[in-house]
Specification:
By secondary structure, the protein is an alpha/beta fold. 33% of the residues lie in helices and 18% in strands. A hairpin with a 5-residue loop joins strand 4 and strand 5. Helix 8 packs across helix 11.
């Protein structure tokens, strides 16, 4: 029976490269897209002897990656042949998929693969990790467009994600065309490469979109805690999400996303067995072997490694003819110019070193450019004196783990490891070296070659014990345990999910605390629908919660706080809905403003505005009143409501409506200037909160001069681009913010002995200077109370400057 093949013609999920691709591939290849992702468990060395709980998977594992775990080629007769693919992810995950009778979904690597083609079974002598994976367990994705592959894989993945996520921004290329080619890939994943810091990821022009795409998952897995903390930091600083660094949680669009560190393991027993039966590779035991196994990639530090070995021979000539460096470089991305140039550089450097140090019976470097079968690789690991693993940056590096698994207990080798690989922070018994410092690497190589047997045995024993415990089975078990797919044998109940704590008043201390402390006047601008009130099916049903109304009333009585509520509603309707005295109301998105003292401001209308408004209403009704959208005339504005439009139709309809609005409405409303005055940026610290597209325009203008919040409601898209500094989860979080402002304003300390300049009430050409002191005149800080108070005045006169000509009058209520 022929299986159903999913087909992709435009956007794609794929992983390119040659049949020898191995190690860490770019982000889209290493995002293990699956219904089961990866999670961390706490590994305690004291528990090493405890029996591992059996894994009960409720469903077989489905792994969705860019490529199938093997390479398909066509022979001269056009028949498909199946070859092994030497990749770290394949080595770790394929045995698990085989054991649980799961599925692996991915691209075949062939643009001419058809639905009627059948994937061949593995050959009887196949010893690769995918040997037991049946053809029925491989579900190919059809991709017929080679240009799509080139844009996404060579463009977005290789040219952008790979160098950026390895913290090498100087090698990164940003191209909107290649980014959009992979834009539709928004799936949950475990990231097999590093996750960079905020300073690096912010260079990516669309970092907010990729972060939100990742947050569409319930669980996001990384190798080590450093990558988790980087991700949490980016979510907070780029998206304004609330994060819990202790529990590793992120709040996004009303959901709690769990972030976990899960160091990936290897099939430890498989490598032990391979090493135990593999024949010896190096005939002589007199010459010590330093082994390096890497994919040919600039992140692996191969050039620096060869130069460090050269330095060893110069600084320690005693090792001449007594040591060799065996470097295996697996071909990768051979069609990419940068990798072609790297191969040329390595070829020249190997030739130069061999030419300088070789004797008739000895050459210092043996260089293998090609794929090595896993059974031979196990023999290389076992017989090597030193494993030299020195990447400049690496997500984990499974070669280090494979080297340890294959070591002989009686005469083990020494592992030298870069701290810039994820494994560096875990495999502490390895000798740590800085790959950028050749002298340090050379000295460490000399130490490893001279290390006594007892020290080698002690270090390797601890390494082997950990890797045996933290193998690929433990990795999968930990993930399944977190996702609730493992049931306790006793009560058969799934594990409970974790949720981020409900937002509390104290949560605003870090963001709003310094703003409130350092301002003399605070202005708070709040949207109504979706910000102060919860969303309703129709505008008439929206109401402000009583507790929110009381909070606004209390804030309105604080002299240092000016509250303004803005809405697309007309002014009278907005005032009736809120019903709070002593605040400013801005109706019709600021075209009408009513101040607390009863003064009213109407924004001047441009010529012909009424006629254009009528045409706008007519065209919106003609083209955009479908799929639940409707038009509401509001006098000075025309509102188009699209909340009920289905998600798959919303974006296209919104773009159409936006283009119609742009055709008829082309003037700006300077809201803050209208509410607080022309020089408001010098006198008032503004906080703005809103949830709509209109609020987003205001946030863009206020960027850098006000602190803004994007309020996320139930109809918000998972990918919500915003100019805001932070996000608030619905009107409840807005209420919590208002409570914080009330507490902060009524208890903050003020600096005494201030001099305040006012207009002289007696002479028009003079200014009165008021000196404000503490309660006892001692000049110490005092607490700010609800009304302004002056306990002591000293009156001085000075000439009134021209700049104070238009200063508004001020009054104080006596204590």
């Amino acid at each position: 029976m022929t299986p159903d093949f999913p087909e992709i013609s435009g956007s794609l999920v794929e992983k390119g490269g040659s049949e020898c691709d191995s190690g860490d591939e770019p982000i889209s290849s290493r995002l293990t897209f699956s219904i089961i992702d990866l999670e961390e468990d706490s590994f305690n060395e004291a528990e090493e002897t405890k029996p591992r709980m059996p894994i009960h998977v409720t469903n077989p594992m489905i792994v969705v990656s860019n490529r199938l775990p093997f390479v398909l080629t066509r022979n001269a007769d056009g028949m498909l042949e199946r070859k092994s693919s030497a990749g770290g992810l394949v080595t770790a995950v394929a045995p698990v998929v085989i054991e649980c009778a799961g599925l692996w979904v991915g691209w075949t690597g062939l643009t001419d693969f058809k639905t009627e083609d059948s994937i061949p079974e593995s050959k009887p002598d196949d010893q690769s990790p995918t040997a037991g994976l049946k053809s029925t367990q491989a579900k190919p994705v059809l991709i017929h467009n080679s240009e799509t592959f080139d844009l996404f894989y060579n463009g977005c993945c290789n040219a952008t994600f790979w160098p950026l996520f390895h913290s090498m921004p100087d090698r990164t290329i940003f191209d909107i065309n290649t980014w959009q080619e992979g834009f539709s890939i928004r799936m949950g994943f475990f990231l097999h490469i590093p996750f960079p810091s905020w300073d690096i990821i912010r260079i990516f022009p669309w970092c907010d979109e990729i972060l939100q795409g990742m947050l569409g998952c319930d669980l996001i897995g990384f190798h080590i805690e450093d990558y988790c903390l980087n991700f949490l930091d980016c979510c907070q600083r780029c998206l304004g999400c609330r994060v819990d660094r202790t529990k590793m949680l992120v709040e996004h669009c009303g959901r709690t996303v769990q972030v976990k560190a899960l160091p990936i393991g290897i099939p430890y027993s498989r490598f032990v067995n391979l090493a135990s039966v593999a024949p010896r590779i190096f005939p002589s035991t007199e010459v010590k072997v330093i082994l390096g196994v890497d994919r040919l990639d600039y992140t692996k530090g191969l050039v620096a490694r060869l130069k460090a070995f050269q330095r060893l021979l110069i600084k320690y000539p005693k090792w001449m003819e007594k040591v060799i460096l065996l470097q295996v470089a697996v071909p990768s991305r051979t069609d990419v110019k940068e990798y072609q140039e790297l191969k040329e550089d390595l070829d020249k450097l190997v030739g130069s070193i061999n030419g300088s140090f070789s004797t008739p019976a000895w050459s210092p470097i043996r260089y293998i450019y090609g794929c090595v079968r896993q059974d031979k690789l196990a023999a290389y690991y076992r017989d090597a004196t030193v494993g030299l693993i020195t990447p400049l940056r690496d997500g984990m590096n499974l070669v280090a783990k494979e080297f340890v698994a294959c070591q002989d207990d009686t005469n083990p080798g020494v592992l030298i490891l870069s701290p810039f690989a994820g494994a560096g922070g875990i495999m502490q018994e390895a000798l740590q070296v800085n790959p950028y410092e050749m002298e340090n690497v050379a000295d460490t190589l000399n130490r490893a070659l001279e290390m006594p047997l007892d020290e080698r045995q002690l270090r390797m024993f601890q390494l082997k014990k950990r890797e045996k415990r933290m193998d690929v089975d433990a990795w999968v078990q930990s993930f399944l345990h977190t996702m609730g797919a493992i049931f306790d044998d006793k009560d058969e109940s799934p594990l409970m999910e974790q949720y981020i704590d409900k937002m509390e008043v104290k949560d605003f201390d870090s963001s709003l605390g310094p703003l409130v402390d350092n301002c003399s006047k605070l202005g708070v601008i709040l949207d109504f629908d979706g910000t102060l009130s919860f969303l309703a099916r129709t505008p008439q049903l929206a109401i402000i919660p009583p507790e929110t109304k009381r909070a606004l009333e209390r804030l309105s009585n604080i002299s240092d706080c000016h509250i303004a509520v803005i809405s697309g509603r007309n002014l009278e309707d907005l005032q009736n809905k809120v019903g709070v005295d002593g605040i400013t109301y801005a109706g019709n998105h600021g075209l009408e403003i009513l101040h607390p003292d009863g003064t009213r401001f109407n924004h001047p209308m441009p010529p012909g505005y009424k006629e254009r408004l009528e045409k706008l209403e007519e065209e919106l009704k003609e083209k955009c009143t479908c799929h639940g959208a409707w038009v509401e005339p509001k006098g000075l504005l025309v509102a188009w409501h699209y909340r009920e439009v289905p998600k798959d139709k919303k974006e296209a309809l919104f773009l159409l409506a936006a283009s119609i609005y742009k055709k008829y409405i082309d003037f700006n409303v300077f809201l803050s200037r209208s509410i607080f005055g022309v020089d408001w940026t010098e006198r008032v610290q503004v906080i703005y909160a809103g949830d709509s597209a209109a609020d987003e325009f205001a946030m863009e203008v206020l960027k850098g001069v006000a602190y803004t919040y994007k309020v996320i409601n139930e109809d918000a898209s998972a990918i919500t681009k915003t100019w805001a500094n932070a996000r608030l989860q619905g009107p409840d979080a807005v209420l919590t913010m208002l409570k914080y402002l009330e507490r902060k304003l009524t208890s903050r300390k003020i600096k005494c002995n201030r001099t305040i300049s006012l207009l002289s009430l007696n002479r028009a050409d003079e200014v009165v200077e008021l000196k404000v002191e503490g309660e006892n005149g001692d000049g110490e800080d005092g607490y700010r109370i609800r009304s302004g108070s002056i306990s002591a005045l000293s009156r001085k006169f000075r000439p009134r400057s021209q700049s104070q000509k238009y200063m508004s009058s001020a009054s104080f209520r006596q204590k």
